[in-house]
Design a protein that fits this description.
Layout (H helix, E strand, L loop, with lengths): L2 E5 L9 H9 L5 E5 L14 H9 L5 E4 L9 H13 L3 E4 L21 H12 L2 H20 L15 H9 L4 H8 L3 H7 L21 E6 H8 L5 H8 L2 E5 L2 E8 L1 H10 L13 H17 L5
Parallel strand pairs: 1-2, 1-3, 3-4
Antiparallel strand pairs: 5-7, 6-7
Helix pairs in contact: 7-8, 11-12
Length: about 300
């Protein structure tokens, strides 16, 4: 019984390092590796990809196909079911080692008839409908974007704050007339970091003035999954997108909530973006989505004052 390993990356600017790590940790014995050319389109149906075709031609009944995550092989529910039909026909097992489908035996057969269990198809369709595959894909696309940016010499992630040892230098330069933008370039930090370092020197700030509002601090709120799914496809401001992307998924029975940490203004902005879930002219609201939005609205209203 052979162990057949399938690998794929989306562009020639990526490596298989993450897949290698996941598969190495799995301890696969004597793997036979089939790796797609990076130039192979990820939108191509899996059964039309050259190396996966070679894998199927090489395979024999009883062999196991190993992949690190489901999205390395498929891009949608239809693809999953097509691949499962072929694996079932050829009597091959499928083992996914990370991600939403890693705990399932997707090629399980009925002990008497040998047919693919209908519950397998049901589980695949349910998970796909719940957005599990889409979230795995989003993680891949984010990873792809970071790797592509690094290849162009652009480093991702939050830019650092001003080092404590340089704070006085920054403040002195600001008082001498150096602009915030110029100081940000000089020190390799964001303009926000410079503003934080010189906050009490800014024209709009009066030291010790009780009328000056304190800066907003991040607030953690649980966003219903249906709201999060809607917002992921909406047009968002950079700060809103960052807060959504950095949210932590918390399982809630069949669904999930997204634990989002953001300043109040960002939460209010996200709440406003999902207003269409309450229904728009000519398009009635979906009750479950409307209920989810109102739950989020209640949390925002309860924890964040919206005005004086």
């Amino acid at each position: 019984m052979a162990n057949l390993v399938y690998k794929r990356v989306s562009t020639d600017q990526q490596s298989t390092a993450r897949q290698d790590l996941v598969l190495d940790e799995a301890g696969i014995e004597n793997p036979v590796v089939f790796e797609e050319d990076p130039g192979t389109s990820s939108r191509l149906h899996p059964l039309q990809r050259p190396k996966f075709g070679e894998l199927l031609a090489y395979a024999r009944p009883g062999d196991t196909v190993h992949i690190s995550e489901m999205f390395r092989l498929v891009r949608g529910t239809g693809h999953i079911l097509d691949v499962l039909d072929v694996l079932h026909r050829d009597r091959l097992a499928l083992r996914i080692h990370d991600g939403a489908f890693s705990a399932m035996d997707l090629t399980a057969r009925h002990p008497r008839t040998g047919e693919l269990l209908s519950t397998v198809k049901f589980m695949v369709q349910t998970l796909a409908a719940a957005g599990e595959l889409q979230r795995d894909l989003q993680r891949e696309l984010t990873y792809d974007g970071l790797r592509a940016a690094e290849a162009r010499g652009i480093k991702g992630g939050r830019r650092p704050a001003v080092a404590a040892a340089k704070t006085e230098t920054v403040r002195t330069a600001y008082l001498e007339g150096r602009s915030i933008a110029a100081l940000a370039r000089d020190h390799g930090v964001s303009r926000g970091a410079i503003r934080t370092a010189v906050a009490d020197l800014l024209p709009e700030h009066t030291a010790g003035d009780p009328g000056v509002p304190a800066p907003e601090l991040p607030v953690v709120l649980d966003m219903p999954g249906k709201v999060a799914d809607f917002l992921r496809s909406a047009e968002l401001e950079p700060a809103e997108r960052a807060a959504l992307d950095q949210g932590v998924t918390v399982r809630r029975g069949q669904g999930y909530t997204l634990r989002v940490s953001a300043v109040p203004a960002v939460h209010r902005g996200l709440l406003a973006r999902c207003q269409p879930l309450d229904g728009v002219q000519g398009v009635p609201a979906v009750p479950a989505q409307r209920k989810a939005r109102r739950e989020y609205e209640s949390r925002v209203s309860a924890l964040i004052p919206t005005g004086p």
